[in-house]
Amino acid sequence: MSIVESMQGFVEENLSLLTPLEQIWQPTDYLPDLTAEDWSPRLGRFRETAERLPDDLLVILVGNMITEEALPNYTLSLGRIAKDPTGTTDTPWARWLRGWTAEENRHGDLLNAYLRLTGRVDMRSVELTIHHLIRNGFSTGGEGDDYAGLIYASFQERATRLSHGNLAKLAADRGEENLARICRKIAADETRHEVFYTKVVGELFERDPETTILAYRGMLRRLVAMPGSRMSDGRDQNLFDHYAAVAQRTGVYTTRDYASIIRHLNAAWGLETRSFAGKAAKAADYLCGQPERYERLADEIESRIAEQPTVPFSWIHDRAM
Ligand SMILES: [Fe+2]
Ligand SMILES: [Fe+2]
Q1: 190 carries an active-site annotation
Q2: Is 37 a catalytic residue?
Q3: Full-model pTM
Q4: Helical pair 278-307 and 255-268, crossing angle rounded to 10 deg
Q5: Can you list the positions of beta strands (E) in the chain?
Q6: Ligand of minimum distance to the alpha carbon of 153
Q7: Which of 29, 39, 69, 238 could cross-link 130 (Cys pair, CB 3.0–4.6 Å)?
Q8: Closest to 60 (Cα-Cα) out of 307, 254, 193, 237
Q9: For the segment 95-142, what is each residue's pLDDT rounded down to a tens digit?
Q10: What's the confidence (pLDDT) of residue 144?
């Protein structure tokens, strides 16, 4: 039995990081009620406040939504870890994965419905991008390695939490409180999920520190590819990079965030305080130097991106961003 498989008891203890169904929100709670008698003025008010979003925030929102909508990719990837041969297995790992998938599934649903109802984006082009992304698939880069998958999940849950949280602030600044509330809700889910994966990896550091730290270093050496990095609208060859540049320019997700995530994970996993030997000690040195390295690079990356020409986005009817 692998170490990850042997952690069923640990996973069981942390299943409370999923929210009970009686308490959890659903997308409908944050959208105008189309069954109400006065649905039309309600929808009108909803669309009016959505007009306050500038194009750059729309592009970010679409990119974040597409990343969430490619959930089948991530479930397939984590399915290897959960090892659920029947699809209804009652082991803690399998229960976590299904519960996590069900919670994540609301994110794409809610953002998709929000965007459709605003009438502000080219939904067909957005849908085409989701279709491409799911067909193109997704890899953490650490093929077949359960450790890398779990480290990647810790990283990404925090990255999405920051990105949704930052977008919430920018939307609120523009007076679009509906979207701000939605993004805050999603960010709160990502936070619970982040806690789970970070605790699991923390336990891997207890049980198998050397393999874990080498997997972590391997992931950072490859640069942590974002989950949506294989997105395409069938036209723009560098769609993801263009979206990432807008995220950087608006401050929704930047190199400084990347550095802060590594800094946080290093501290959460006790990299500076644990004692490692040999190869693992070298890996710890490398990892502890990464936050500063990216902080130093941040200015350079920022100015490079600021100089990039704007490009048309099919998502917003070819307006350039
Ligand atoms: Fe999510
Ligand atoms: Fe997530």
Answers
A1: yes
A2: no
A3: 0.97
A4: 160
A5: 312-313, 319-320
A6: 2
A7: 69
A8: 254
A9: 999 999 999 999 999 999 999 999 999 999 999 999 999 999 998 877
A10: 67
Q: Is 157 annotated as catalytic?
A: yes
Phi-psi region of 103 (alpha: psi -120 to 50; beta: other; left: phi over 0): alpha
Query: Could you give the maximum distance between any two Cα atoms of the chain, in Å?
Result: 70
68 is catalytic: yes
Kindly give the parts of the chain with pLDDT less than 70.
Answer: 143-144
Give the Cα separation of 51 and 162 in Å (integer). Answer: 24
DSSP state of 273: T
Closest CA to 80 of 142, 18, 131: 142
Whether 104 is a known active-site residue: answer yes
Q: Compute and round to an integer the Cα radius of gyration of the chain.
A: 20
**Ligand index nearest the alpha carbon of residue 107:** 1
- Which DSSP string do the residues of 97-114 spell out, in sequence order? HHHHHHHHHHHHHHHHHH
In sequence order, what are the beta bridge partners of 312? 320
| Active-site annotation holds for 189 | yes
From CA 170, how far away is CA 246, in angstroms rounded? 13
- Residue 110: CB atoms within 10 A of its CB come to 23
Q: Is 315 a catalytic residue?
A: no
User: How confident is the prediction for the chain on average, in pLDDT?
Assistant: 96
Q: Where are the alpha helices (DSSP H) in 174-277?
A: 177-207, 209-221, 239-250, 255-268
Report the separation in Å between the CA atom of 68 and the middle of ligand 1, taken as the mean of its atom positions: 5
Measured distance CA(65)–CA(107) in Å, rounded: 8
Which residue out of 193, 203, 242, 250 is catalytically annotated?
A: 193
25 a catalytic residue: yes
Domains and their CATH numbers in the chain: 5-320 (1.10.620.20)
Residue with tokens 């090892």: 83
Q: How far does the centroid of ligand 2 lie from the alpha carbon of residue 193, in Å? A: 6
Active-site annotation holder among 67, 140, 160, 212: 160
Identify the active-site residue in 19, 25, 49, 310.
Answer: 25
At residue 193, the pLDDT reads 98
94 Cα to the center of ligand 1, angstroms: 19
Torsion from C-alpha of 195, 200, 205, 209, nearest 10 degrees: -140
Catalytic residue among 55, 56, 68, 109: 68
